[in-house]
Amino acid sequence: MNINKGLNLLKKAIYDITPFTTLDYKDNLSCIVWFISCNMRCQYCYNSNIIECKDGNYAIKDLFEFLEKRVGLLDAVVLSGGEATRHDLLPICKKIKSMGFKIKLDTNGTNLTLLKQLIENDYLDYIALDFKALEEDFQTITNSNLYDKFLETIKYLIKINFNFEVRTTLHADLITLKQLNKMIDQLYQLGYKNNFYIQNFLNVDNYADLKEPKNSIDKELLSNKLNILWRN
């Protein structure tokens, strides 16, 4: 059986490959695959060069050739972007798993159909799901109307008890303490029980030309309904 059947090995869907990281997938030595394109334009996003890219720098065959040299050296592959689920990940993940790697997926959760297929085929080991904003703020922050798709995905992952985390990028001028606590409460009400990761805004070039926030969040006033871990 040809494991690459139906896969366009020459498609340049990858912007870059980070060959080694100990940070992106806890307890696993990993590489990161940065897929081009995204269906959101988040105000704080600093990967505009990746998501606006029409053609990547690497083809799928380049990824497989890279991974063949990393068998036994790396534990896992992190699929990120951009938004990796904009691409046909089924044959890609099938090949990666056949090489013995775990797979972590970073996603905004707007392609539940593909996620279900990947999970049902046992291709994913872990998901990092971005909770961009509350429903009332989602359009403003992400420049998209995809909140309902995100909500559908998180409900599904909770229902099947999949191994995943929820994370939020925080710019305190976009998300206030009150809004952040409402996000925590919503996760709690949905039945989410894992860590909630809050990533601080990085003051680099971004879509909305955001600078350091004028406001701040008093961590002592955050809800204790979930275990909160801060990154950056």
Given as residue ranges, the uncertain stretches (5+ residues, pLDDT < 50) are none
Give the count of helical stretches.
7
- Described by the principal axes of the CA atoms, the overall outline is globular
Q: How many β-strand stretches?
A: 8
Tell me which oligomeric state these chains represent.
Answer: single chain
User: How would you state the average pLDDT, rounded?
Assistant: 95
Cofactor: [4Fe-4S] cluster
Keywords: Iron, Iron-sulfur, Metal-binding, S-adenosyl-L-methionine
Domain Radical SAM core: 23-232
Protein name: Anaerobic ribonucleoside-triphosphate reductase activating protein
Task: Describe this structure as you would to a colleague.
The protein has 232 residues and is α/β, with parallel strands linked by helices. The protein has a single domain (14-231), classed as Aldolase class I (TIM Barrel), CATH 3.20.20. The protein has seven helices and eight strands, in the order ββααβαβαβααβαββ. It has an eight-stranded mixed β-sheet, with helices on one face. β3, α3 and β4 form a beta-alpha-beta unit. The longest helix has 14 residues, at 177-190. The model has no long low-confidence stretch (mean pLDDT 95).
